[in-house]
User: Fold this.
Amino acid sequence: MDTTLKISKIKDGTVIDHIPSGKALKVLAILGIDNSNSISIGIHVMSGKLKFKDVIKIENKYLEKLELDKIALIAHEATISIIKNYEIIEKFTLDMPDKFKGIVKCANQNCITNSGEPIKSEFKTVSVEPLTIKCIYCRKEMEGEEIINNI
Ligand code: CTP
Ligand code: ZN
Assistant:
């Protein structure tokens, strides 16, 4: 008897694979998916011997640059596959953008971007592993959960 649980292949849509184990729900949350797409999620599934990953499959949805940049902030290790009629027509890893504009709220309450002025937040990528970004206005550095909680 085959006791392994497999997530079905999809006909059309996007597969976000190799998400670090435990981060799939955060990725879904920032993508702001509503009830109009069928989604399959694998959490803590086997990825080769002794390794685990999360996987998200979203039917009939293709991600935009802004959405890919948000995923890069949470799971830059992820692999994106674009599926059309069951075939992978494109597969790529995420590039870490060197700046993020209007995506992350600065954690410094006194930052000008939190003052009510119409100034969009903007961060520069300081390091990728671990991910550290720096506000171009107040120079506040943010990493890890602090970034994720402010997307
Ligand atoms: N996939 C899917 N539906 C399809 C085709 C592929 O859901 N019609 C999924 C696969 O299940 C996998 C991902 O897309 O999660 C990438 O597919 P593929 O490159 O065939 O898998 P692997 O070779 O295992 O990829 P990797 O080497 O990146 O682990
Ligand atoms: Zn700031």
